[in-house]
Write a structure and sequence with these properties.
Rossmann fold, 8 helices, 7 strands
Amino acid sequence: MTSILITGAGTGFGRLLAFSLARRGHAVHAGVEITSQIGVLRQEAQAQGLALNVSKLDITSPRDRAHVLREDFDILVNNAGIGQGGSLADMPDDVLRHQYEVNFFATVALTREYLHARRNSGATRVIFMSSIGGILTVPFAGAYCGSKHALETVAQSMHLEFAERDVTIATINPGPYQTNFNDLIMEGPRYWQSDRDLFDHSKLTFDMPQYKDDQDVETMADITLDPRSRFRNILPRELEQHIREQEQAIWNW
């Protein structure tokens, strides 16, 4: 049985992945950002007959990080993240900084602390839940994509640095799924937009087709558990060639 810590497990992929791995018989610790999510997730797990350890884990809180790392985990799944839409030309500094604080700085801090806690503890694995937005960039999502681009660099650097040790690193790069995350990204500017903005954010929406939220969760679980998986894993797999072509096309701009 493998012990696994999943951050941001109150909603979206974190929640679905926690259930999937628990169903497989692994010891899953689901970290959730706010206390109110604890009871809800526990009840859902109980209704499914699953053993799931749930606790508050705001990854921006050093206290929360230290508390959860009192327990030993074979695998860390960095799933917690936020999305902020809107033009970078208009986005307030504090909004932009918070985007990076969660998706980059706090994620890196937890990973660093986890790796130190696992020193000489045997096989260790870190999963970064990134995005296709960590490879490509779309209009009015520059803050989110930028934070994921930064996270990709950290993941790749660690992947190379730990190549000769018993530590494996991988990224999962989901495309658009119906987790409600993409739609909420585009709602962000409604809370900070002003009449001085260069762009009208009032009608900003996420208009790309989206895949069913649980379509590839079992594949994500397979990647999480398999230290021999590829470093980068774009899902759904059918998007991989399209992403490769788009990335190559950037050189011709």
